[in-house]
Design a protein that fits this description.
With 346 residues, the protein is an alpha/beta fold. It has two domains: 189 residues, Isopropylmalate Dehydrogenase (3-Layer(aba) Sandwich), CATH 3.40.718; 138 residues, 3-Layer(aba) Sandwich (Isopropylmalate Dehydrogenase). It contains twelve helices and twelve strands. The structure holds 3-isopropylmalic acid and magnesium ion. The site of 3-isopropylmalic acid (IPM) has 8 residues, from helix 4. Pathway: Amino-acid biosynthesis; L-leucine biosynthesis; L-leucine from 3-methyl-2-oxobutanoate: step 3/4. GO terms for molecular function: 3-isopropylmalate dehydrogenase activity; magnesium ion binding; NAD binding. It is found in: Cytoplasm.
Length: 346
C-alpha cells in the first residue's frame, strides 16, 4: 500500500523519520514515497504544494504529514505561504472531517497544565470541520471609504457542510460514550445559528445520542475547568483549531496529540496537531509521539491494520511507563531516543 510521506518544514522531517522506523517494525505492507511540501517545497520548487506532491497525495492510499510553517516565508503573498499547502491538500482531497482525540496517558498526569485529578478524566475526541468556515471564505485587503486599510475574511457554512460533519460527530459519539457537544457562537454569529439548527435537525437520526450545545467561549473555559465532561465535541474549522490546541495542553503536551483528516471514503491525511516549531528544528528536541500516534490512526482508519495500530499505541504507553520523556514532557530524550524507546517497547 502506497503511503505519501510529506515531511514539510521545521521539525516535520525529524518526527516523520522516527515514525517511519516504527511503521517498518510493525508491518511490511507499506511502500513510501516522499515529496516536498510547505516552505521546503517553496524553496525547492517555487510553490508550497507542487503538482507532483498533490499528485502523489492523490495516488497514495494514505498521507503521513509532518508540519508546515517557515518564518522565512511569512512575508510571501498568501497563496505562496507554507500553510497553503495543508489547506490546499485538505480542500483538494475533500478531507472535511478532522478527528483530534485528546486522552491523557496516565503516566503524563504530571505534565498536564491542569491538576492531576482534573486532567486524569480527559478522554475526548474533537471533530473539527476542515473544508469550510472563515478559512476558505472570500478574503482580502481593501480600503474603507475614508481610505483606511481594512482586512476581511468571510465566515460561512452551508447546511450540507454542517450536516455531513454533524453526522461524523454523532457516529463518533455512538462508538464511544454516546455524548455529543456541538460548539458554536450562535448568540452572535448567523453562521453558528445555522450550524446549531442543522445539528438539531440531524440529531433526529440519532435518538440514542445525548446532544448538547455550548458557546465557544464557555467551551474554552469548561475544557480547563472540567474536561472530563466531554466525550465528543463537534465544531467548525476555526473554533476547532483553537480548542484542539487548548485540549492538547490539558492532556499533557502539544507533542502528544495525533490527528486524522478524512474524506467521505476513509481516505485520510494523518498529522500531529502541532506545528513546525522552527525554534527547535534540527536539534533533536522534538517529541515524535504525536506523529507516531497519527500513524497508528492511519493504520486503523485508512489501511485496515487495527492490530498493528493497537501495538503502536501500546508501545507508546509502555515507553512512557518506562520513563521515556522528551523535553516538552520534562525529560531529556532526543527525538531519536524517543523513537528508540518506542521500538524497544515493540
Ligand atoms: C492545524 C494548524 C493549521 C490550521 C495551520 C498550519 C494552517 O494550525 O492543523 O491546526 O490552522 O488548520
Ligand atoms: Mg492549529
Amino acid at each position: 500500500m502506497l503511503i505519501a510521506l510529506l515531511p514539510g518544514d521545521g521539525i516535520g522531517p525529524e518526527v516523520i523519520a522516527e515514525t517511519v522506523r516504527v511503521l517498518d517494525r510493525v508491518t511490511d505492507q507499506l511502500r513510501f514515497e516522499t515529496a516536498p511540501v510547505g516552505g521546503a517545497a517553496y524553496k525547492a520548487e517555487g510553490h508550497p504544494l507542487p503538482p507532483a506532491t498533490l499528485d502523489l497525495a492523490k495516488r497514495a492510499k494514505a498521507i503521513l504529514f509532518g508540519a508546515v510553517g517557515d518564518p522565512d516565508c511569512d512575508r510571501l503573498e498568501r497563496h505562496l505561504r507554507p500553510e497553503q499547502a495543508i489547506l490546499g491538500l485538505r480542500k483538494e482531497l475533500g478531507l472535511f472531517a478532522n478527528l483530534r482525540p485528546a486522552t491523557l496517558f496516565k503516566e503524563l498526569a504530571d505534565a498536564s497544565a491542569l491538576r492531576p485529578e482534573v486532567a486524569g478524566a480527559i478522554d475526548m475526541v474533537i471533530i473539527r470541520e476542515l473544508n469550510g468556515d472563515v478559512y476558505f471564505g472570500e478574503k482580502g485587503m481593501r480600503k474603507t471609504a475614508s481610505g483606511r486599510r481594512e482586512g476581511y475574511d468571510i465566515m460561512s457554512y452551508d447546511e450540507d457542510e454542517v450536516a455531513r460533519i454533524a453526522r461524523v460527530g454523532f457516529e463518533t459519539a455512538r462508538a464511544r460514550r454516546g455524548k455529543l457537544c456541538s460548539v458554536d457562537k450562535a448568540n452572535v454569529l448567523e453562521t453558528s445559528q445555522l450550524w446549531r439548527d442543522v445539528v438539531i435537525e440531524v440529531s433526529a437520526e440519532f435518538p440514542d445520542i445525548e446532544l448538547s450545545h455550548m458557546y465557544v467561549d464557555n467551551a474554552a473555559m469548561q475544557l480547563v475547568r472540567n474536561p472530563g465532561q466531554f466525550d465528543v465535541i463537534v465544531t467548525g474549522n476555526l473554533f476547532g483549531d483553537i480548542l484542539s490546541d487548548q485540549a492538547s495542553m490539558c492532556a499533557g503536551s502539544i507533542g502528544m496529540l495525533p490527528s486524522a483528516s478524512l474524506d467521505a471514503n476513509q481516505k485520510g491525511l494523518y498529522e500531529p496537531i502541532h506545528g513546525s516549531a522552527p525554534d527547535i528544528a534540527g536539534q533533536g528536541k522534538a517529541n515524535p509521539l504525536a506523529t507516531i500516534l497519527s500513524a497508528a490512526m492511519m493504520l486503523r482508519y485508512s489501511l485496515g491494520l487495527a492490530a498493528e495500530a493497537d501495538r503502536i499505541e501500546a508501545a507508546v504507553a509502555t515507553a512512557l511507563e518506562n520513563g521515556a520523556r522528551t523535553l516538552d514532557l520534562g525529560g531529556k530524550l532526543t527525538t531519536t531516543q524517543m523513537g528508540d524507546a518506542v521500538l524497544a517497547a515493540l
